[in-house]
Amino acid sequence: MTFTNGLLHMTNWVGNVILPTLAGLFFAWAIWRFAQSESQIGFQLYGGLLCLMTSGLLRAMETFASQRPWNDPDVYWIALVTLVDWVGNVLMPIYAAVQVVAGALRMGLVTRIHHAEGWLKHFAAAGLCLLLSGVLRLAEFFVVNGTGGVT
Amino acid sequence: MAGNQERSDPSGCLPNPAGFTTISQSGNNKAMTPPQLLTDIIRVLLQLAPAGAVVSLVLAGLSLRRDGGPAAAIGGSFTKWMFWAALLSTAGPLLSWFSSFGIPTSVPSGGIGTSWLSSIQSDVSNFVTNFVVNRLVTTLAAYFVVRVILDAASGHSALPSILAAMFLLGTQATYTLIQSLNSGTQFATADVLDGLWNYLAGTLMPIAAGLAISGAVINFATRRPAMRLVGVALAMLCVSGIWKLVLAMEA
Prior knowledge:
- The structure holds 2 protein chains of 2 kinds.
- Chain A is mainly alpha-helical.
- Chain A has 6 helices and no strands.
- Chain A has helices spanning 3-35, 42-51, 54-65, 75-110, 119-130, 132-145.
- Chain A is flat and about 70 Å long.
- Chain B is mostly helical.
- Helices cover 73% and strands 0% of the residues of chain B.
- Chain B is flat, with a radius of gyration of 28 Å.
- At the A-B interface, helix 1, helix 2, helix 3 and helix 4 of A face helix 7, helix 8, helix 9, helix 10 and helix 11 of B.
């Protein structure tokens, strides 16, 4: 028996056995909250999905952390940059599509019942998701041009 | 007049009694042989050092829980006992430093001549192997497994108790690892500590990154802070790079 084997098997057990099992619980939790008319079901819903993807997430983190050689002082910074790139350029466009669908559903189905529903928020969120890099560049532009101070 | 002659005697200020000769005068300046008992005590202590290292590892495992988990492991009493384990497992090579200081320290070789000292060494070694390592450590680990459940019931993190139980169960393997890192040179203690750091950074941390990701997922689903654990997982995969970064900042 070695400590390393214990740690490795515990990690595998948690990631490959326990979390996929808990995914069902999180989905049930999301449905229950939805039935209770609670709007914040995203955490349980996405949490259940993430539970099924733990190994993939770890592989993603390993890929981010191996963008530079192990002894490069910039390896952590590059890993963070790669994570931000992945979130901004891969996840956010997908989330934009989700928001467009949510906005369309709300506009097409719910607006007939109650016109004050926030379908516009979903479309705005989708636009911002797709404009994330541009928004960041815009903020950088403002900061760079503001270094001279107020004259 | 006779007193003046006695004072001019280079052998000292007191007169030599008749028939008395100093060691140097007689030419009998051989090195003193250490007593057998003293040599055997040194042999006993050196041969008990591995048992002491194993006991230190057990105490390190207990400290891992008492310190409060992996975050407190560095710099706490866990570190202290790991240091002692490394020191005791490299006691022989460490003594060779005295020779470089100019102090002749020949480690006595061979078996223990004094029978009762030999039996003490044998009894203590057997006690550590058969009682502490083979029986007591397993029982302590089992108690820590119960502690995991009690920790969870009281709303505390179960991880420190799990890690302590695993460390205790792996005591013998950890000692074997330390022995394999022992270079047998004057720098053996530092080599062991270096090797343990490399093992921590290169083997244990990437595995722990998986645990951190699992923790991040659970935290996200239960609406607790998750980004911290994502950053920690990345850092666990980049420990060597962060070390190089600190070195580069120091330069």
